[in-house]
Amino acid sequence: MRPLVFELLVALLITGLSIFSTIKYRYRPTPANQRAKCSGYKLTSISLTDHGLNGSLTLAGEPCNVYGNDIFNLALEVTYETDDILNVRIYDTEERQFQVPDYVLPRKHFHKARNPTYEFSYTENTFGFVVKRKSNGEVLFNSTGVQLVFEDQYVSFGSKVHDIMHVYGLGENVDNFLRPRDSLSTLWTRDTPSPPRQNIYGFHPFYLDLRDSGRSHGVFLRNSHGMDVVLKPVANASKIEYRILGGVIDLYFILGGEDGNPKSVIEQYTDIIGKPHMPNYWALGWHQCRWGYGTIEMVEEVVENYKKAEIPLEVMWTDIDYMDQYRDFTLHPTNFPLYKVQSFLTKLHSQNQKHVFIVDPAIYHGDDYAPYKEGVDLDVFIKNRDGSIYYGRVWPGFTAFPDWFAPNTQLWWTRQFQRFLEDVPVDGIWIDMNEPASFCFGSCGSGHPPGEHPQGSVDDLVINPNDPVFEPGVPDYNLLNPPYKIHNGYEFLSTQTVATNATHWNNLTEYQTHNLYGHMEGIATYKTLTTINPKTRPFILSRSTFPGSGTYVGHWSGDNWASWPYLYYSITGILNFQMYGIPYVGADVCGFNNHTDEELCNRWHSLGAFYPFARNHNAHNTIAQEPYIWKSITEAAKKALHVRYTLLPYYYTLFAAAYEKGTPVWRALMFEFTDDHTTWDIDKQFMIGPAVLVTPVLDSGRVDVKGYFPKGIWYDWYTHERVYGANRMILDAPLGHIPVHIRGGSVILTQRPAYTTTESRQQPFELIVALDETGHASGEAYLDDGVSLEPVESLRIRFSVCGNRQVVMRSVGSYKPNAKLEKLIIMGVGLDLVVDCGYIDMNKNAVITF
Ligand SMILES: *[C@@H]1O[C@H](CO)[C@@H](O)[C@H](O)[C@H]1NC(C)=O
Ligand SMILES: *[C@@H]1O[C@H](CO)[C@@H](O)[C@H](O)[C@H]1NC(C)=O
Ligand SMILES: *[C@@H]1O[C@H](CO)[C@@H](O)[C@H](O)[C@H]1NC(C)=O
Ligand SMILES: *[C@@H]1O[C@H](CO)[C@@H](O)[C@H](O)[C@H]1NC(C)=O
Ligand SMILES: *[C@@H]1O[C@H](CO)[C@@H](O)[C@H](O)[C@H]1NC(C)=O
Ligand SMILES: *[C@@H]1O[C@H](CO)[C@@H](O)[C@H](O)[C@H]1NC(C)=O
């Protein structure tokens, strides 16, 4: 959530937003002196290794020192990791530049390339390299066209290719799905109410590049420093240029097989960064939250109101309101007394519902506060250069910040949760404000007595941001104000966060590690919850993420706005995170900031019901927006959630594929219909898995919506009416209705919905069989107990129809679902049948004729 001090700046921000939408992208051009003076590197030696090449690079001329100090000697290491993954590393021979440590993001050494789909070549003088796709000779990356500058505080390189790059990724940002050809993306994690086209919470230096050939590849840069990534069209060529505040060049090229299939690229990307976690089955139910449920009675009332309105509610949430003076691991003594919270949780659990609490990383600074005292004793907090604790300010007042690099931090963090969850057994943890957010500019200073409450405002600056701050022992290394200015949405790197000259364990600086903070908190929280409950899947939702975070946490798009553009941005945000290996993602339904209105909130409930993570949430100073507040929205929510809950077994199967292979759950149409260029920039519709197409209304005052249907036959979810593809269509979409279509050729396992997912899982299974023009269809399903970290039993079922009006069902596995298959819903050319099929055991192979 956004800090109070920023309310004053809302007006400013709003002006900012409209400016951004008209002037689009602003960036400073490459400085003239860089081009003129930097001489690049020459390759002075090269040798073959078992898995690639090793070489040495030396500065080719005089240092240019554009934004720091040129580094004279570099090592080149090229590793043919797999047939589809190539790693190219260029780093300082002395290895003084910060590199993302293995314990933050384990580096996988595959070393199993046999017959690579790529070709690596280089030029010696001036050094440059080229990565080509073997099958068609396509140049994927040619570093020769962009100057290589390797300085302590500035690393710049890139690629120019004579081709059109269609680039997706480089987030987290609020924008179209397809990156504009002329654009700049800034990566630096930041607490901000989600302004379009600026850096926000997460850090994902990954892009997918789709070429006119219809083949795509991915490029991942393993580097945690703040950076700008510039895309530029140059005549009929395209250029990408990285401008990074330090670290090394550590690039992974991901080919996605010979045909460069985007789904394969993403799967292979998650081979490198780690597979997404498997969510609990209940996590796929509907969630309700708001900032401003000020008492436990209010929370209880919301649960009851949902029930009265018969709108499914799976998970109830509480924001910072539950805490005593906003301190972590406490309950407000009068608004959320322990005994009432406990009886509330008992009742909720008896109704098969869950509860999630928010926890912020910043720890209140007070001698009477055990988590702080223990943290001091165990030496877990971020420091000033002189070794004293660094203080910032968040909701509880002056705060210390856990340093996830310190050796005792995990133990300390686990202990706090153990103690708290013993009393208050909530089902999941929401980690917010972990960019990390702090309301002082840089440090709040150390001179504050414990327990002092902040009276001042953001402008009680204790440092002059324009003063250079040098790291001791390293000449001219400016931590607070580096010579190259990335296009951070705030003027200084340290604005609204921990000062970049703060010190982590082992003399690491915030400058180097800032973008790892939320990711490391996610890992620590995951380890905590699996220590407490070794057998169950943790539920963790995190605002700030980094490559690999999806293994531990889900994500929501942060503090969005109750406005029509943000209804659309929710789709592009979710599609982006599917590429970052974090498929469990959503956006605050009806909008977080600003008052929503009945029409917007209605449309948002229709769309939000399909988010992988589906939650209504808003800010404390806005009107109530639970779906039961308006009759029309009650109806809209019930109708859309009926579809979602019917599809729960399908969603769960998609998450199992994400967990096993990294396959996206939500898919841009481009992912499913890569050969069809029309789909490449479609981001107002989306696919759920391979079989379901959703076409939401994203504008006010409409009763219909235009959508594109790729080649094939499609069936309306509600009426089974056929739509023939390769066409744009206008669909009826009165308020409360969201068009959903099933792709011909699919078989989808569904279950009759009930109030909670637990009850839904007792209901009969039904099979949707949507035939293609030739009477064929296939599909699969995955089931297990829905909560075990490593399920002992599971069940996989394959369904197929081969033009002969018979569904063949093949089951493997010992998990026994609580329900049987009772119905087939057949859609086909000249067919629209519902067939009762008796009670078919899901664990048996069967042939069902219709
Ligand atoms: C290549 O360089 C790396 C890093 O310096 C080193 O560990 C490795 O042994 C080198 N391989 C060969 C074959 O020289
Ligand atoms: C790479 O770029 C350089 C400079 O733009 C160009 O001379 C060279 O032909 C390119 N190589 C390939 C394989 O396209
Ligand atoms: C466009 O690309 C073609 C083929 O790569 C090249 O021959 C031609 O000179 C380019 N045109 C411009 C304007 O750069
Ligand atoms: C950062 O530098 C400023 C200015 O020199 C100094 O006042 C401050 O204490 C430093 N902060 C930390 C965390 O070391
Ligand atoms: C950290 O830096 C301080 C001051 O430069 C130095 O005295 C200390 O030895 C360093 N510690 C480590 C672990 O490198
Ligand atoms: C928030 O609401 C104000 C007042 O209605 C409006 O002017 C502003 O445009 C809204 N902000 C956004 C981002 O929608």
Q: What is the CATH-assigned architecture of the domain at 32-273?
A: Sandwich
Flag low-confidence runs.
Answer: 2-29, 449-468
Subunit organisation of the chains: single chain
- Biggest beta sheet attributes: 9 strands, parallel
CATH level 3 topology of the domain at 32-273 = Immunoglobulin-like
CATH superfamily of the domain at 32-273: glycosyl hydrolase (family 31)
- Enumerate the strands of the largest sheet in spatial order, edge to edge or round the barrel: 26-25-24-23-19-18-17-28-27
Radius of gyration: 27 Å
Written account of the structure:
There is one protein chain. The chain is of the alpha+beta class and 850 residues long. The protein is 20% helix and 28% strand. The model is unreliable at 2-29 and 449-468 (pLDDT under 50). The protein has a nine-stranded parallel β-sheet. An eight-stranded antiparallel β-sheet has the order 1-2-3-4-16-13-12-10. The longest helix has 16 residues, at 517-532. Helix 7 crosses helix 9 (517-532) and helix 11 (598-608) packs parallel to helix 12. It comes from Paraglomus occultum. Its EC number is 3.2.1.20.
Give a summary of the structure in a few sentences:
With 850 residues, this protein is of the alpha+beta class.
Chain-wise SSE layout:
Blueprint (H helix, E strand, L loop, with lengths): L9 H14 L8 H6 L3 E9 L2 E8 L13 E8 L4 E8 L25 E7 L2 E7 L5 E4 L6 E2 L4 E7 L4 E6 L11 E5 L16 E7 L5 E6 L5 E8 L2 E8 L4 E6 L7 H12 L12 E3 L7 H14 L5 E4 L19 H13 L3 E6 L3 E2 L5 H9 L13 E3 L2 E4 L8 H15 L4 E4 L78 H4 L3 H16 L7 E3 L11 E3 L7 H16 L5 E2 L1 E2 L8 H11 L5 E3 L14 H16 L1 H14 L4 E2 L1 H4 L13 E3 L3 E3 L9 E6 L3 E4 L5 E3 L2 E6 L7 E4 L2 E6 L5 H4 L4 E6 L5 E9 L9 E9 L3 E7 L8 E8 L2 E10 L5 E4 L1
Parallel strand pairs: 17-18, 17-28, 18-19, 19-23, 23-24, 24-25, 25-26, 27-28, 38-42
Antiparallel strand pairs: 1-2, 2-3, 3-4, 4-16, 5-6, 6-7, 8-9, 9-15, 10-12, 11-14, 12-13, 13-16, 14-15, 20-22, 21-22, 29-30, 30-31, 31-36, 32-35, 33-34, 33-36, 37-38, 39-40, 40-41, 41-44, 42-43
Helix pairs in contact: 7-9, 11-12
The site of one 2-acetamido-2-deoxy-beta-D-glucopyranose has 11 residues, from loops.
